[in-house]
């Protein structure tokens, strides 16, 4: 099994998105694998290395998050506390890179609510932000928002599909 997952996004120019294996191991158990499962989510933490986004950690659902079959609303305070703690532990090098959540579909794609909420995150920032939607099968949607644009693609992370190829 590969140790990491790498993909490209045109909004990063020559940059790449690197997601470490332990991140997938943290979020994959929250896939909505049966009809009663609720959406889950959290934030993505890692490093900005030039044009690259390197994800090394993710929060998982916290007390106060609101979860239902077709919706996840993150309780900002508990996730923000974790992000601040990681930032302090790493002398300010681990940064908030974006968000992840699940969808009850095999080939996930952002809803209009997703894109509207993400726009509030990436438009005011001067840096690219990362967004991941984990489907119930081996597919995820990986996107980058920067300025006024959001671009993404469906991929299969190695932890689920044992491959790191993206479907363009």
Oligomer: single chain
Low-pLDDT runs of 5+ residues are 161-168
Beta strands, count: 11
Based on secondary structure, the structural category is: alpha+beta
**Helix and strand pattern:** EEHEEEEHEHEEEHE
- In round numbers, the mean pLDDT is 88
In CATH terms, what is the architecture?
Answer: 3-Layer(aba) Sandwich
Strand ordering within the main sheet: 1-2-4-3-7-8-9-10-11
Shape from CA axes? globular
Looking at the structure, the CATH topology is Cytidine Deaminase, domain 2
Q: What is the CATH first-level class name?
A: Alpha Beta
What Rg is obtained from the alpha carbons, in whole angstroms? Answer: 15 Å
Largest sheet: 9 strands, mixed
Q: Please, how many domains? A: 1
- Figure out the total of helices: 4
CATH superfamily: Cytidine Deaminase, domain 2
Amino- and carboxy-terminal Cα gap: 22 Å
As a percent range, the share of strand residues is 35-45%
**Percent helix:** 10-25%
Mind explaining what this structure looks like?
The structure is a single chain. This protein has 168 residues and is of the alpha+beta class. The chain has a single domain (4-167), classed as Cytidine Deaminase, domain 2 (3-Layer(aba) Sandwich). It is built from four helices and eleven strands. It has helices at residues 21-27, 76-89, 112-122, 158-161; strands at residues 4-8, 16-20, 41-49, 52-58, 66-68, 71-73, 95-102, 129-134, 140-146, 149-155, 166-167. The strands form two sheets. It has a nine-stranded mixed beta sheet, sandwiched between helices. Strand 5 and strand 6 form a beta hairpin. The longest helix is centred in the middle third of the chain and has 14 residues, at 76-89. The chain is globular. The two termini are 22 Å apart.
């Amino acid at each position: 099994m590969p140790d990491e997952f790498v993909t490209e996004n045109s909004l990063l120019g020559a940059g790449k998105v690197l997601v470490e294996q332990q991140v997938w191991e943290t979020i994959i158990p929250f896939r909505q694998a049966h009809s009663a499962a609720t959406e889950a989510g959290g934030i993505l933490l890692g490093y900005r290395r030039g044009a690259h986004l390197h994800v090394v950690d993710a929060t998982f659902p916290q007390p106060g998050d609101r979860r239902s079959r077709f919706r996840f609303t993150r309780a900002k305070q508990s996730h923000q506390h974790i992000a601040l703690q990681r930032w302090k532990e790493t002398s300010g090098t681990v940064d908030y890179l974006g968000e992840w959540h699940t969808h009850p579909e095999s080939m996930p794609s952002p809803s209009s609510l997703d894109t509207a909420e993400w726009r509030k995150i990436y438009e005011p920032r001067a840096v690219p932000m990362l967004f991941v939607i984990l489907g119930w099968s081996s597919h995820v949607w990986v996107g980058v928002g920067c300025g006024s644009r959001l671009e993404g693609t469906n991929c299969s992370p190695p932890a689920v599909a044992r491959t790191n190829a993206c479907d363009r």
